[in-house]
Predict the 3D structure of the following.
Amino acid sequence: MDIDYDFFRVDEAYARPQKGKILISEPFLSDTYFKRSIVFLTEHSKDGAVGFVLNKPVNLSINEVIKDFPSINTQISIGGPVQTNTLHYIHTLGDIIPESIPVVGNIFWGGDFDTLKELATLDLLKTKQIKFFLGYSGWASQQLEEEIERDSWVITDIEPEIVMADKDDHFWKEMLNRLGEKYRLWSTFPENPTMN
């Protein structure tokens, strides 16, 4: 008997990308960088999209990555598969960091690195004010939309304070659980269904 319900089809309400929203990967997306990931979109336009994976922390300190940067207590994550030898950051410092790009609410992307370093040197950066990423996630024009058509991503809003908080392995499940019963079931699927 056929049923008129596709369990793995993303509901239309969760399929519109926009700057400041998050992408939640579907349970079986097996890409090394995007498996069970949450990506915060900092840019989305007809030309493409840019974002950063929020829940892939690495066990490095900022002064291990940038040798002459002051030691500050902040989490560093793998931001995505593009240019993994580059450092990026989002923050809540706004115009204090010249050339910052507003994303959503009080979250900004990038800005003058020398100013950021000076604030860190003067011990004026708090842990929850900045997040660093190695590399980024990038999509060419219509590439993300094609992935969404294939139901690779669920898209939803996120509170700025959650974006800036440290993440652990449970974050992917927590975000799916907030979207209702269908996605709560997604969160319980084993990573490798053939091993179940």
User: Anything to note?
Assistant: The longest strand covers residues 130-140. The helical segments are 62-65, 113-121, 143-149, 160-164, 171-177, 181-186. The first helix runs from residue 62 to 65. Confidence is low (pLDDT under 50) at residues 1-5.
